[in-house]
Amino acid sequence: SDVYKRQYQRRVHGINQKRFLFVMAKVVNLLKPIKVGDLQLKNRVFMAPLTRCRADPATGIPNQLHIDYYSQRASAGLIISECSQISPISQAFPGSAGIHSEEQVQGWKKVNDAVHKKNGHIFLQIWHGGRAVHPANVGGKPGLAPSPIAIRTQVFTVQGIKPHMTPKEMTEEEIKQMIQDFRKGAENAMKAGFDGLELHGANGYIVDSFLRDHTNRRQDQWGGSVENRTRFCLEVVDQLVSVFGPNRVGVKVTPNGRYNDMFDSNPLKTYTYLAQQLSKKNIAYLHCAENDEDYISWVPNNFISGKKQMVSVAKDLRPHFKNTLVDNLGYGIVSADEAIQEGIADAISFGRAFMSNPDFVERIQNGWPLTEVDLSLIHI
């Protein structure tokens, strides 16, 4: 579908790609080692999670494509995997690789062994698609969400492009079961040999939909106040920490992002509180994504610009989180190096650059030109 291709192109290509093509200045800070949690990492160039959809949609088992893809990028300070679903009814992308079956665990183990053989480190981005789940992709089951509010866009399914459906409002029992599903996913990730976990709390999926007041309109202990809306995220984090320990757990957030039709009336208040609570839990890192209007301009909404709410997510949250802060989106190599120098972030994650440059770190080290992303060659 041309519509889907245009949406994906904007999502992947995002802002001006030209700034990535050449390394024009000496880069120092990105290449410095960093300790994240109890892991000593070789540089601050992190590989951002990128949805690739390379597994068989029927099984969600990682395969040789995953082994090659991740091991080729093992020079990153930290690889954060594509989002990986915790149950058969939680995937929002046909072909995403899951973490709920033994076969998936064994598939990921081969990936991790290959990354570790090259002295790399890799965290699993653990995920539930929430209201972005379409029944056509999960055997007819509805998506789940804190409140029954549909995403006002279309989605790619195994049956073609379809409008998002209204999700089912979760019961108390379903919320508690999902928290346990996250724990089981964490246990599977440990068996698979991941170095740690990143909770996907961004981009309108289940954790994000609990956090923001546009999608969470509950009046019980899971909604309403900031304290209640952050409860689900914090309880999931507790389960992940109980398996991996706080030194091996991170959280990804997009406070002012609009992807998947998202909005919060006061993201600074919501995410300041969340950052403070995560800091108290002493997790390894907080992974922010800056708002980019070009990146999300295809989402049809009437919300105020995210940049008017928070000009810089990293700058706003930095004082409230004591451990490693990772920033993402909108960075070239030089601006990323400067951000670390200025204390805005401790590490920067890159997505598009790693897609077309498996040796991205080596190219930074040597000042070699980068290969631009060619969307016609991207396997999704």
Written overview of the protein:
The structure is a single chain. The chain is an alpha/beta fold. The chain contains 14 helices and 14 strands. It has helices at residues 2-13, 64-71, 102-117, 172-192, 206-211, 226-229, 231-244, 267-280, 293-296, 306-309, 313-317, 333-341, 352-356, 360-366; strands at 34-36, 39-41, 45-47, 78-85, 122-127, 144-145, 154-157, 160-163, 168-169, 196-201, 249-253, 285-288, 324-328, 347-350. The strands form four sheets. It has an eight-stranded parallel beta barrel, surrounded by four helices. It has a two-stranded antiparallel sheet with strand order 1-2. The relative contact order is 0.16. Mean pLDDT is 92; it is low at 1-22.
